[in-house]
Design goal:
The chain has 441 residues and is mostly helical. The protein has 21 helices and 6 strands.
Length: 441
């Protein structure tokens, strides 16, 4: 079998592995947190980002191994592993069949330093703890593509246009990971193949090439510095974004568990969509048409499963810190707000208790209500509320819910859960069952 076919087989295999790490086609018992950490460790800048935040990734050795192998064999990551590389190869094959390669190519000399400007910008953004590097990092953009966000679809369109100009034009001129591996490749490396003998050149030519190399190096460093200055301008502009996100928090943007604080989450999340695609209850969403949108919980669609911490397991860069399920059960995502003037028990004098039945921590309870205590009315203990949204999701009042979970800017731990144990209430429930009065919803 020819070498190119082996390469295609290996590329396809790793492409499938990366895809399932984002969208979850395999049961979590197989694709567990440890396996996912090894897959995501292949993202060079996601790993560096975690180190900047003083975290050591579980599979840091995988990133180190990829770098070491690149010293030995060259850009093997770009050639065999990168999912964006396979997409470009497929697009390139289509372009050839359609005969569109006759378009005028952009001279490499005109943009030869663009990649170093971009690399400098990305490195500066990461070390300034900004998540804006996501719009240049191929791994984050691939995740956006799998989530069908506007940014992801736009990235695919731009890839198609770039392939018309030249095969893997994005890899060679834009991708910061590709620039890193280019630097590694240019360094001395071991070769297991016999080197071809090269005829000796004239000393004048050698001196000229050395001078050109020095000039290229100096210009490359200058381009890198320009990129870093661009990053400084971006981080300065992002202060406006933080103010906008504070405004969003006031209208109910609930962060996924493990986010910690709003400021930290917005600075780290690259909106790759892994948590959105892997959420079993589908409560995590991204506003696809909103620029620089980060994941949030939408309790109109579902609620956060009390026994689940899947989003923490799949996050590739630590924007969602991992916590065991038992600890996650106590993380407060929001605070309940109960409006009696909308509740059917208080307004229509009808039995309910959906919120109390679905509350996993005992923050929502019911107590006798009415002239003869014939009804059970809900009430809430805020200290025990974790903001999971079960009460808001299940609340039957329309169009405005009687129970709404409001966002918090910093996730803290709620009080320990408490199960309701009131004999008087239990007697009332038993009487209602005996009278063949089933739960109204």
């Amino acid at each position: 079998m020819k070498k190119k076919y082996w390469r295609l087989i290996i590329q396809t295999f790793f492409f499938f592995i990366v895809v399932i790490s984002f969208i979850g086609l395999i049961d979590k018992t197989i694709l567990n947190r440890q396996v996912l950490s090894y897959i995501h460790a292949s993202s060079f800048f996601a790993t560096i980002s975690r180190l900047v935040w003083l975290e050591i990734p579980d599979a840091f050795l995988v990133t180190f191994a990829i770098i070491l192998l690149s010293f030995i064999f060259g850009r093997i990551y770009c050639s065999y592993y990168c999912p964006v590389g396979l997409i470009q190869d497929i697009l390139n094959s289509l372009i050839k069949r359609l005969g569109l390669r006759n378009l005028k190519k952009i001279s490499y000399g005109q943009i030869r330093y663009l990649r170093w400007i971009i690399l400098g910008c990305v490195v500066a953004l990461i070390f300034s703890r900004s998540s804006w590097y996501q719009y240049l990092d191929h791994y984050a953009l691939f995740g956006k593509l799998l989530s069908f966000t506007f940014t992801g679809i736009s990235f695919l369109v731009l890839l198609a246009i770039s392939v018309v100009v030249a095969p893997r034009w994005f890899c060679n001129n834009i991708c910061p990971s590709g620039s890193i591996f280019t630097i590694i490749q240019k360094r001395p490396k071991i070769s297991f193949y016999k080197k071809k003998k090269i005829k000796e050149k004239k000393s004048e030519v050698i001196i000229a090439s050395e001078n050109n190399s020095r000039r290229d190096f100096i210009k490359g460093v200058g381009a890198f510095v320009v990129g870093a200055l661009c990053a400084k301008a971006i981080t300065f502009t992002s202060n406006t974004q933080k103010n906008v996100q504070k405004l969003i928090s006031l209208i109910g943007s609930i962060l996924p568990p493990g986010a910690g604080s709003r400021e930290s989450f917005n600075s780290r999340c690259i909106s790759c969509g892994a948590c959105v695609n892997k959420c079993p209850s589908k409560v995590i969403v991204i506003d696809n048409l909103v620029f620089h949108s980060t994941p949030r919980l939408d309790f109109s669609k579902s609620f956060c499963d009390y026994e689940c911490n899947r989003c923490m397991e799949v996050c590739p860069n630590g924007a969602l810190s991992y916590h065991p399920v038992e600890l996650k059960k106590s993380i407060r995502l929001g605070v309940v707000n109960f409006n009696q003037n909308r509740c059917v028990v208080y307004i229509d004098k009808k039995d309910c208790g959906a919120c109390a039945e679905h509350c996993p921590t005992g923050a929502a309870k019911t107590r006798p209500y009415g002239k003869d205590n014939e009804l059970l009315a809900p009430y809430f203990t805020e200290e025990r509320c974790i903001g999971c949204g079960a009460c808001e999701y299940i609340c039957p009042t329309r169009p405005d819910k009687a129970v709404i979970v409001k966002a918090v800017d910093v996730q803290t731990l709620a009080a320990l859960p408490q199960v309701q144990n009131n004999s008087k209430i239990e007697n009332i429930i038993q009487n209602k069952v005996q009278k063949d009065n089933p739960f109204p919803f």
